TrEMBL record:
Homodimer. Residues 28-311 form the Ppx/GppA phosphatase N-terminal domain. This is Exopolyphosphatase. Its main location: membrane. It comes from Arenimonas soli. The gene is ppx. Its EC number is 3.6.1.11.
Length: 506
């Protein structure tokens, strides 16, 4: 049977977020009570996935067992939760893999749930959302939030619960330690050269951030928390990291010659091997952005994912607003988009049961219909290809990279010859249904090619396996010769998807 639309959250329902970070894997489980989320369980394991990156898009096989073992333990904890109540996010390390499916397929099996890969700026949005909910901002006061992960660093300026500026840099505590101190040795000369190099990367957006300004700065990662712990233990600060305390910690660290010999108050043995890289990133950020003091939040991306799930349940899905923004940015004919969407949804309703389509398929098809013509802003010729490129490569708030690649595949295949390669980035577990949604979008786009405002007649669709039987009134079809020709052409193209189109008149 198809997956039915998930009923709204009710008191007692459980939600879970899984964060597959480059250094640690986190899982947080919450119960929904009286309109709020109450955390009931947290699990964190140090996996250091980024240590397995070989610089060529490959992952050392020795890293896989500890990642999969961790996910299996997470999976046991959330085994009884329905799929729509769980969201698992993979970040920088998986983004860098040449073949992410080689990791994601066994990882999803171990967890028992799908895993989405998010782009850096979407990761930044989720981080800000988590910090904002964990540390409610004062009205009218902006905040800079920074998260130093294992492989990337996100820097955000936001106000209220909205991220206004989002940046993601390819530097993190593991990646930076390996990049500058790969032989285990540290000294002041190396540090100065490395700090200058990292500061240059922050300079890409430092001026714009300084102009916008912020009232307070908060750090949300284990790295910044560890630096704060050292600052407190050294009696430099009480609850924060300052530019002065950061300089004192840096000077103390540089008294040591090797990573292994570092002994700082409050620094755990687990954090020691990657502490220098994380401190270096924060040192460069303070200098480039002019940060004077940074407080630490216990909330991060995993909590942001939970609140994002809650927003979707409350019909406050940021993806809907992002689609509207795309329509506006690329001057989409919204009336035409609405006509195509209505027909696509009608066809979906008729194919849902026999094809076992689900609520996620319906949402993606609707979004694809709303923006199927965005490529026209570039050129009419091959506009479906231009549109797919824009969808896949734009920063679209609320969408994971997996969702954007799926949406791009739908836009790419709305017309002309099938493009099987466009589905290669779609997870194998989703490909069959995404291809079927592409067929429904093709028919909807075809039926409205003339941009005619007159309503269509009743379009009947029966599906049986890979066969589609389309019924249209004979008289209407005779009066629309272009549509008839397009349907006959479509009949010749669909075998490229492994499907067959049959036409009948009523």
């Amino acid at each position: 049977m198809p997956t039915e639309a998930t009923p709204p959250l009710k008191d007692g329902d459980m939600l879970a977020a899984v964060d597959l970070g480059s250094n640690s894997f986190h899982m947080v489980v919450a119960r929904y009570l009286l309109g709020q989320l109450r955390i009931v369980d947290r699990i964190k394991e140090t996996v250091r996935l980024a240590e397995g990156l070989d610089g060529h898009g490959g992952l050392d096989p020795s890293v896989m067992p500890r990642a999969l073992d961790c996910l299996a333990r997470f999976g046991q904890r959330i085994r009884t939760l329905p799929a729509p109540r769980v969201r698992a996010i993979a970040t920088n390390t998986v983004r860098q893999l040449a073949n992410p499916q080689a990791f994601l397929m066994p990882a999803e099996t171990a967890l028992g749930h799908g895993i989405e890969v998010v782009a850096g700026r979407e990761e930044a949005r989720l981080i800000y959302l988590g910090v904002a909910h964990g540390n409610p901002p004062e009205p009218g006061r902006s905040r800079l939030v920074m998260d130093i992960g294992g492989g990337s660093t996100e820097v955000i300026i936001g106000e209220g619960f909205e991220a206004l500026e989002r940046e993601s840099l390819q530097m993190g505590c593991i990646a930076t330690t390996r990049r500058f101190f790969g032989d285990g040795r540290i000294n002041r000369k190396r540090w100065k050269e490395a700090r200058t190099e990292l500061a240059a990367e922050f300079q890409q957006f430092a001026e714009a951030y300084r102009r916008r300004g912020w009232h307070e700065a908060m750090g949300s990662s284990g790295t910044i928390k560890a630096i704060c712990d050292v600052s407190v233990k050294m009696k430099l600060t009480k609850v924060s990291v300052t530019s002065d305390s950061l300089a004192a910690i840096r000077d103390k660290l540089l008294d040591y010659d090797t990573i292994d010999s570092i002994k700082l108050p409050g620094l755990s043995s687990e954090r020691r091997p990657i502490f220098a890289g994380g401190l270096l990133v924060l040192d460069a950020a303070f200098g480039a952005l002019g940060i004077e003091r940074m407080y630490v939040s216990d909330h991060a991306m995993r909590e942001g994912v939970l609140y994002d799930l809650l927003g979707r349940d409350r019909q406050q899905d940021p993806r809907d607003e992002s689609i509207r923004a795309l329509q506006s940015r690329y001057v989409v004919d919204t009336e035409q988009a609405a006509r195509v969407e209505a027909t696509a949804m009608s066809l979906f309703d008729q194919a849902e049961l026999p094809w076992r389509l689900d609520a996620d398929n319906r949402r993606l098809l609707a979004w694809a219909a709303r923006i199927h013509e965005i490529g026209l802003v570039i050129a009419h010729s091959q506009y479906h290809q231009h549109g797919a490129y824009l969808v896949e490569n734009s920063d679209i708030a609320g969408f994971s990279r997996t969702e954007q690649q799926t949406l791009a595949a739908l836009v790419r295949n709305q017309r002309r010859n099938p493009n099987p390669a466009s589905f290669d980035k779609v997870p194998d577990r989703l490909v069959a249904n995404v291809q079927r949604c592409a067929l429904l979008l093709r028919l909807a786009v075809l039926m409205h090619r003339s941009h005619d405002r007159d309503p269509l007649p009743v379009v009947e669709l029966d599906v049986d396996g890979n066969d589609l039987l389309l019924r249209l009134p004979k008289r209407w079809l005779e009066g629309h010769p272009l549509t008839r020709l397009d349907l006959e052409t479509e009949r010749d193209l669909l075998p490229g998807y492994g499907h067959r189109l049959l036409l009948r008149t009523t």
